[in-house]
Design a protein that fits this description.
- Strands 8, 9, 10, 11, 12, 13, 14, 15 and 16 form a 9-stranded mixed sheet that branches.
- The chain has 7 helices and 16 strands.
- It has 2 domains: 11-124, Aminotransferase class 4, branched-chain amino acid transferase, N-terminal domain (D-amino Acid Aminotransferase, Chain A, domain 1); 133-288, D-amino Acid Aminotransferase, Chain A, domain 2, CATH 3.20.10.10.
- Helix 2 (53-66) crosses helix 3.
- The chain is globular.
- Strand 11 and strand 12 (205-209) form a beta hairpin.
- The chain is of the alpha+beta class.
């Protein structure tokens, strides 16, 4: 599949119906377009099975409730809809994107309690998020924008509005010849990349930022389980940016990124070392098991 995302052959599940791809549209006065009342998930299907699918469904409901709305489909109904969409498109390997939002209705302002909530599930065939960085190591910029104080946003939700500064940071990084950007949090600690969590290695032990103001990714949690199974010591803690000089390896985790080694962040360099490669390989085996 190629071409603009609004001009493709295929099917999208929308509010209980399978809709031809080009016809899956919303009105210009959709509340989510104006006020970011939208939540979503990113998932991958491997060999016909969506990895940790139910966990993603549950988080989608949690995110919606965090934004003060309810999705009018149950976890099990979302599960069935995802697989129906995959079947309609003939895919066994795909990226899956459920999205729920407040639509257009009687309200057109900040308040939108009378507006209907919609759910759509799309998908597409997608390779490595960072291209050949999976083998050579991604190059990251250091973002100008910071992850906000959790008192200002529902940071545990996967909400569309929280990605605005991520888009801006990624654009700035790409303009500098980088694949992505590492973001600090509101206190100046290392947080994450624009759409992925981050891990570091030093003296055989792993260090990763404490997710107290950003999304604790499902892939991140999976990798933590893998490290524990291997008996590798993991430190979830606050990390200052100057500590990057002492780390030997680095990798990113996310449904899109999977496990991607990092070769450079700003002026700091890392080897694409044995542990990073091992975790990337083992993760690939796990999701395809």
């Amino acid at each position: 599949m190629a071409g603009a995302y609004d001009d493709r052959d295929g099917w999208i599940w929308l509010d209980g119906q399978m809709v031809e791809w080009r016809s899956a549209k919303v009105h210009i006065l959709t509340h989510a377009l104006h006020y970011a009342s939208s939540v979503f998930e990113g998932e991958r299907c491997y060999n016909g099975r969506i990895f940790k699918s139910q966990q993603h469904n549950e988080r989608l409901h949690f995110s919606a409730r965090s934004l003060d709305f309810e999705i009018p489909y149950s976890v099990d109904e979302i599960e069935a809809a995802k697989y129906a969409m995959l079947k309609a498109n003939g895919w066994t390997e795909a990226y899956v994107r459920p999205i729920a939002w407040r639509g257009s209705g009687e309200d057109m302002g900040v308040s939108a309690r009378r507006n209907p909530v919609h759910l759509a599930i799309a998908g597409w065939e997608w390779g490595n998020y960072y291209g050949d960085a999976k083998f050579k190591g991604a190059k990251l910029d250091i973002a100008q924008w910071r992850r906000p104080d959790p008192a200002t946003i529902p940071h545990k939700a996967k909400a569309a509005g929280l990605y605005m500064i991520c888009t801006m940071s990624k654009h700035a990084a790409e303009a500098r010849g980088c694949s992505d950007a590492m973001m600090l949090d509101y206190r100046g600690y290392v947080a994450e990349a624009t759409g992925a969590n981050i891990f570091f290695v030093k003296d055989g032990e792993v260090h990763t930022p404490l997710p107290d103001c950003f999304l604790n990714g499902i892939t991140r949690q999976t990798v933590l389980e893998m490290l524990k199974e291997k008996g590798i010591t993991v430190h979830e803690r606050h990390i200052m940016p100057e500590e990057l000089e002492g780390f030997e390896q680095c990798w990113l985790t996310g449904t899109a990124a999977e496990v991607t080694p990092v070769g450079q962040i700003g002026d700091f360099n890392f080897e694409v070392g044995a542990l990073a490669r091992e975790i990337a390989t083992d993760y690939d085996r796990r999701v395809r098991a």
